[in-house]
Amino acid sequence: MEKTVLITGASRGIGFALAQQFLKNGFNVIATSRTGKIENIIHKNFEVLELDLSNEKTINNLAQILQNKNIKIDILINNAGIGPDLYTHEPEKESFKQTFDVNVSGTVFLTELLSPHINDGGKIINISSKMGSINMCVLTDSVAYRMSKTALNMYTKILVNRLLGKQLIAAIHPGWVRTTIAKGNVNGRLSPDESASKIFDFVISDFETGTFWDIETQSKIEW
Length: 223
Ligand SMILES: NC(=O)c1ccc[n+]([C@@H]2O[C@H](COP(=O)([O-])OP(=O)(O)OC[C@H]3O[C@@H](n4cnc5c(N)ncnc54)[C@H](OP(=O)(O)O)[C@@H]3O)[C@@H](O)[C@H]2O)c1
Description:
With 223 residues, this protein is α/β, with parallel strands linked by helices. It is 36% helix and 19% strand. The longest helix has 22 residues, at 93-114. The protein binds NADP nicotinamide-adenine-dinucleotide phosphate (NAP).
């Protein structure tokens, strides 16, 4: 039977490329965007649902739709994320709150609600960033973004402990990718397709639960 992957934030960037990658490889893809629409992908195994991670109502609605349609997921990819303070040097209250609402609270509570819909033997993948690694941090920029990914990493570890023997969990650094997340990303080393293809290979592998994986170097990252 075809496996089902749910990818958040698939309207553009890495999420969009991931949706294409999974479709190409025979998966059913449930993708989310804030408008509930994604242009340029038409496929019989593709469904788009509305999700704004800063809006509790849309999180609850999404879970309710899965419940009503009795949809089971094999892989949840928490990809949606923002970085309004990327490369700035002073934390600023509004962008700090937005970042934590989306990258942390929204992602955590969505995952909690979707958890009962994930099959045993399934996988939860959090698209994190090596900017969230405490051990690697030697710079002072992007305070909210870095802290939000560190928090997501801790949630990843908590899921690992909770779901040991039941589901495989990983945090992934997708590389420096040419997306619109920040202006500087036009210079990114990877295209979204290159990143997504490597993410796909990792996700379908029999990876060790609790891995924090760097797509670019193909190696583990220190938490
Ligand atoms: N690009 C990089 O170099 C890089 C490096 C490390 C980590 N990452 C991580 O990779 C993930 C994808 O980033 P990207 O570079 O592909 O960024 P992107 O091109 O800006 O795409 C972000 C996606 O997240 C969605 N999104 C934004 N705000 C949202 C909200 N409130 N609720 C739900 N979805 C929302 C967007 O959908 P809408 O159309 O609805 O806005 C979009 O589909 C993020 O978690 C990011 O932190 C990226």
